[in-house]
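During the reporting period the student researcher (J.K.) took over the structure-prediction task from the postdoctoral fellow and processed the backlog of single-chain submissions. One of the processed entries is reproduced below for the supervisory committee.
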Amino acid sequence: MAFMFPLWVVLAGNSGNFASADLFRHHPFCPSLGCSMPVCLVGAGSNLGDRAENLTAAARQLGSHPQVDMVTMSRFHRTSPVGGPGGQGDFLNAAMRVETTLAPPALLQLLLEVERTFGRRRTQRWGPRTIDLDILLYV
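J.K. obtained the following structure tokens:
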């Protein structure tokens, strides 16, 4: 069963290349391929402050958790905000493939904790944010 949420993770020193062919190379249901934990896709976005640094630092913090292994991350992509208040700056977005022993609700709580450490406050729907982390896929 797959769970859909949002999230972002960036590896320190990652070149930003994302090989989609490798995305599920270590599928969790194929131990013979070397995966010992569920595979997750995490999305991340930022449109306040130093967006690239926000994404990179949030990824480092996520990857420092003992039950999360960072595997790979996409390049950054700039997007215009959709919905929400006018006058927002563009978002810088990325996606990561991570492996974790955390269950989906625990992973979501970890992502929310990382967001809070970066000052994320949910005061305005679709408003500007320093960081937005979402579980995109959990298998």
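The committee noted the following: The radius of gyration is 15 Å.
J.K. will present the remaining backlog at the next meeting.
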